[in-house]
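Cast an eye over this sequence plus C-alpha cells and walk me through the fold:

***
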Amino acid sequence: MSDPGAEHVDARFQDFYRDHFVPTARLARMLTGNPDVADDLAQDAFMRVYQYAQNAHTTIENPAALLRTTTTNLCRSWHTSQRRAQLRMVRHGADSVALNEWDRELDDTLRQLPYDQRAVIVLRYWLGLSEAEITDSLQIRPGTVKSRHARAIRTLRKELS
C-alpha cells in the first residue's frame, strides 16, 4: 500500500522543480562556465534536495535556499575535480593546449576569477542576494564574503580597464 502523503510531497516537489530548474541551471552555468555540466549539476542538486526532504524529520523552511547552497557546493566540487584533472594532465606531460576546452575559452573576464570570488560575484549581482544570503549559500563568514567581493571587484576593474 502506498503512502498518500508521499504523492502529495512528490507533486509539491514537481512544482518546485518546474519553478526552479531554469534559474538553478543558470546559476550552475554562471559558476561553471559550461552549459552541459550546469544542467547535470542542477539535476544533481534537485536529487540531493529531494533525498534530503524525504529523510528530514522537519519541514525544510527555505527549500530554494537549500537548493542554491547545494548547487554552489556541487559547482565547487566540480571545479575542484577539474583542477585535480588539470594537475594530473600537467604532471603526465600534457601541454597547456591539451588541458580542456573550458580552459581555452577563458576569455570572459568573469571566468578569470577564482571560483570563490566568482561565486560571490554571481550570487551578489546575478541573483541579487544580500551579504547574509551569500554567507548562508556558501557557508562562509560575512567577512570572507566582503574580502572575496573586494578582491573580485578589484580584479574585474583591472581587467576591464
About this structure: Confidence is low (pLDDT under 50) at residues 99-107. The first helix runs from residue 4 to 32. The CA atoms of residues 97 and 104 lie 7 Å apart.
